[in-house]
Design brief:
The chain is an alpha+beta fold. It folds into two domains: about 1-145, no CATH class; about 160-190, no CATH class. It is built from six helices and eight strands; from the N terminus they run ββαββββαααββαα. It has helices spanning about 20-30, 90-95, 100-110, 115-120, 135-145, 180-185, and strands at about 1-5, 15-20, 35, 40-50, 50-65, 70-85, 120-125, 130. Strands 2, 3, 4, 5, 6 and 7 form a six-stranded mixed beta sheet that branches. It is elongated, with a radius of gyration of 25 Å. It binds zinc ion (2 copies). The site of one zinc ion (ZN) has 6 residues, from loops. One zinc ion binds near residues 159, 161, 162, 171 and 173.
């Protein structure tokens, strides 16, 4: 998913890139999610303020086990992102600026060529020659994953006694929790 900086004209560059299922699942390893389809990423790249603003979007389709009922649930996660890539040389220069100067500089960004998108964009450093979209997309795929998965908000989960999936039918088990110590007391006749 490489883009050479000279491919980006003044009007910007639009690219469509694919990430294979293998690459995606390698990225998702250990996350508890699995991709079901390769990823189609549409991105636009624009040169701005010495860097390159990358805006992109894709929909990631993954499956995961519902944490309540353990059935496989499918998720469709629309993702859009904006990353401002700053060449190493420029990034190094910025290190010597103190905070006031940085604030000044940010204002500058707002005035020329800078845009709302640029102010909102995360900043990352690149070598100034070639942009590799793959690590950016990989990171976005991971960021888009929900903290925990339930197949649906009102999922009833499994019966703690018999394991019945309560979304399918009620099993009728008495699941009111009784502390075993209290259960013993109940049987004492006073
Ligand atoms: Zn569920
Ligand atoms: Zn039950």
């Amino acid at each position: 998913m490489l883009v050479k900086i000279e491919e980006i004209r003044d009007a910007g560059l639009k690219v469509d890139k694919k990430m294979s299922l293998e690459q995606l699942n390698a990225a998702l390893e250990g996350s508890g999610f699995q991709a079901t389809e390769p990823l189609s990423v549409s991105a636009s790249l624009r040169k701005l303020s010495g860097g390159v603003l990358v805006e992109g979007k894709f929909t990631s389709r993954v499956v995961s086990e519902c944490k309540r009922c353990l059935t496989e649930s499918k998720l469709e996660l629309p993702v859009s992102f904006a990353i401002n890539l700053v060449p190493e040389s420029l990034a190094r220069g910025e290190d010597v600026l103190d905070e006031d100067e940085l604030a000044e500089k940010d204002k500058g960004h707002g005035e020329h060529g800078g845009s709302f998108a640029l102010d909102q964009a995360d900043e990352e450093v690149f070598d100034g020659k070639v942009i590799d979209l793959e690590p950016i997309v990989r990171e976005q795929v991971l960021l888009a994953l929900p903290m925990s998965t339930v197949c649906r908000e009102e999922c009833q989960g499994l019966c703690v006694k018999c394991g019945q999936n309560l979304n399918e039918k009620k099993c009728g088990c008495d699941t009111t929790f009784v502390d075993p110590r209290l259960a013993a007391l109940k049987n004492i006749k006073l």
